[in-house]
Design goal:
The complex is a heterodimer of chains A (351) and B (289). Chain A has 351 residues and is an all-alpha fold. Chain A has 14 helices and no strands. With 289 residues, chain B is mainly α. Chain B contains 13 helices and two strands. In chain B, α1 packs across α6 and α10 runs parallel beside α13. Classes of the chains: A mainly alpha (351), B mainly alpha (289). At the A-B interface, α6, α11 and α13 of A face α4, α10 and α13 of B.
Chain lengths: 351, 289
């Protein structure tokens, strides 16, 4: 079905000039306008939003495109941070290389978790990933994050509660690191879009529709299911590495056991059928609790909102906000136009 | 060796009983409604916290403890009659994922109202102890063993002999045909939700006493219960009972091995994954769509 160059050419052809201009303007806004308007605290929060959007991009791809529900993305995110830190304390590599290795190792672990997907589907696969999430969180709570100690855990009591990955020289400040994360996020979103619009995306669509038909059409179901897990876990690993280098580093408190379920809730709320849903989900997950704090409210209202949102999405809007909002806005626009036209017809005086 | 193991064996068998009873509740609900209620532990935890608050305010335990059971039954009934019918036509995954929403809401409410600290409940039965050999056994632990066995026997007899039980088995077989035969399907499903809620309340109170009244710990009581239910292939109630006891004893026994004691909590997760891989490949697990 064509070489890599053919797939890339197809991908470039599907992006219209208008869309390209909008995307470039959005990128410039995110890179330059946002940092100029926000103080240090909000820059740190926005950096977290960008990092989490990468992780949620992977989960959205797995659920929306491949039709595989996984509840262990949050734990894979933590594993990515763990791997990046462990590598750093063993051999000091540049951050991009560290991220790549963390992403690949997490992808391998994600594929191992996804192996049951070859025999299970639907509810039972989701349960396996839920158990993996719970078990993984428990193990992490015991071994903690590496902080310069010895042994395979790299943990030391003297090392402190949180662990930090060193940033590149050109991204030491909070603003510079934010821009660094945005660039990485853009690369990951492009990678995801390329996969969705390419052969993998077509295979996932066929598998989602009917595995039997996909098999009959010659789709390698085993490979593409595992590939979906690999991509999702790779995103989680990259996100984990970036989190480990963010302000304050990582500590086990950032990964509560219920985080896996909350992440699934916000990803479904954000929408799994397009990549913008990941950004909406990340905004919900990181920005909403901060806004609640700012307004003097308990952050647990955010947790309750996620639960209600999950139930609402399953009931009325399976595509999530990113799918539903444009449709609702379009309906609203149509309604406003109809009302305006009706009013203007009434005010026209018949001579 | 046995003397070291004894106290953990006794605790384990009592814990296992709670897991078994919860597992039976999950199985009955799943077979009737197609919903694997992952909010089971969360609702139970909230009920137990309400009981704790009532006792803290000076209300008698004779009101507080039934209050927990009533609360759990009510929440389950409300969910089962108001929300669950709206998605009853969807697949099991969607119906089960919706219960995760309820779990998240429960955790959020609990952490907002009661904070993140652990509390404790001591049932009156915990004050009545017997010394057997080197081990002290309380009536709470005895209840944790005897109650699940009685509940399981009662459930099996109920499903086989009673009209409602027969209707539940019929719905489990084919919901649409059962409805066409004039069986009030929604009412029977509501009864299943209430029964599940009652068992949830009792399990939460026992577990809060045997371990601790910790929000996250109790909310994830569903994991060992689910493991027991999965080993019973979401169908075999006596196997679920036995599996629950096995999980409790095994998990507790790991306390005697220092090298793995810290990781004993992994037991139900590993067993659940094993059960899913062995039984969940489509042939052996009873699937409800």
């Amino acid at each position: 079905m064509g070489s890599k160059g053919g797939a890339l050419a197809t991908f470039m052809q599907t992006v219209s000039p208008k869309r390209l201009i909008v995307l470039v303007c959005l990128a410039l806004f995110v890179l330059f306008v946002i940092p100029s308007q926000l103080g240090t605290r909000w820059m740190i929060i926005m950096t977290a939003v960008v990092i989490y959007s990468i992780v949620m991009l992977g989960l959205g791809l797995l659920i929306g495109r491949a039709g595989l529900v996984s509840i262990c993305q949050f734990v894979l995110f933590a594993i990515g941070a763990w791997v990046a830190l462990r590598i750093n304390y063993l051999i000091q590599l540049p951050l991009p290389l560290n991220l790549l290795i963390a992403g690949i190792v997490t992808a391998i672990i994600g594929v191992l978790v996804g192996l049951p997907a070859l025999r299970l589907s639907g509810l039972y696969l989701a349960l396996v990933t839920l158990m993996a999430a719970g078990g993984g969180t428990l193990v992490l709570t015991r071994i903690l994050f590496p902080n310069g100690g010895g042994g395979w855990t790299g943990q030391s009591i003297k090392g402190g509660v949180s662990s930090l990955l060193p940033r590149p020289m050109f991204a030491l400040s909070d603003v510079a690191y934010y821009r660094y994360c945005v660039v990485i996020a853009m690369i990951m979103f492009l990678l995801a879009t390329w996969q969705v619009r390419g052969r993998a995306g077509r295979a996932w669509a066929a598998i989602r529709q009917s595995e039997v038909t996909a098999l009959a059409a010659g789709v390698n179901i085993t490979f593409y299911k595992l590939w979906a897990f690999a991509i999702a876990s790779f995103c989680a690993g990259i996100g984990g590495g970036l989190l480990a280098a963010s302000r304050g580093g990582v500590s086990i408190n950032q990964f509560p056991v219920q985080g896996s379920v909350q992440m699934l809730a916000v990803v479904l709320m954000g929408g799994v059928f397009n990549v913008w849903g990941a950004m909406v989900a990340a905004i919900f997950f990181k920005l909403v609790p901060e806004l609640l704090l700012q307004w003097g409210l308990s952050t647990e209202w955010g947790t309750i909102l996620f639960g209600v949102g999950l139930m609402q999405v399953l009931l009325t809007a399976p595509g999530g906000i990113s799918d539903q909002l444009p449709k609702d806005l379009k309906k609203l626009w149509g309604l406003l136009l109809a009302v305006t036209i009706r009013r203007s017809k009434k005010t026209e005086t018949p001579w | 060796m046995w003397s070291d193991l004894q106290p953990f064996f006794v605790l384990g068998i009592a814990l296992g009983g709670v897991f078994a009873m919860s597992g039976v509740g999950l199985v009955v609900l799943y077979r009737t409604t197609g919903v694997l209620n992952l909010a089971y532990g969360g609702v139970g935890a909230m009920g137990a916290l309400i009981s704790w608050t009532m006792i803290d305010k000076g209300i008698s335990g004779w009101i507080a403890y039934p209050g927990c059971i009533l609360f759990c039954a009510l929440v389950s009934l409300v969910y089962g009659t108001l929300f669950a019918p709206l998605i009853s036509g969807r697949d099991s995954l969607t119906k089960t994922t919706a219960t995760l929403g309820m779990l998240v809401i429960a955790i959020g409410l609990m952490q907002m109202i009661w904070g993140r600290n652990a509390h404790s409940i001591t049932l009156p039965t915990s004050y009545w102890n017997y010394q057997i050999g080197e081990v002290r056994i309380s009536w709470t632990q005895i209840l944790g063993v005897v109650f699940p066995i009685l509940i399981t026997y009662g459930t099996v007899v109920f499903l086989k002999k009673s009209k409602v039980g027969t209707a539940m088995r019929s719905i489990a077989n084919d919901r649409e045909i059962t409805a066409m035969l004039g069986v009030p399907v929604r009412r029977i499903e509501s009864i299943a939700w209430v029964v599940s809620g009652v068992l949830c309340g009792i399990a939460a109170l026992l577990l809060a006493n045997l371990v601790s009244l910790d929000i996250v710990g109790l909310s994830f009581l569903v994991v060992p219960s689910l493991a027991a239910a999965l080993i019973g292939q979401l169908n075999k109630i006596w196997v679920t009972l036995a599996a629950g006891f096995f999980i409790g004893i095994l998990q507790s026994s790991f306390n005697t091995w220092p090298s793995v004691a810290d990781y004993r909590g992994l037991t139900p997760f590993v067993l659940a994954i094993g059960a899913l891989l062995v039984f969940g490949a489509g042939k052996n697990m009873v699937a409800r769509t």
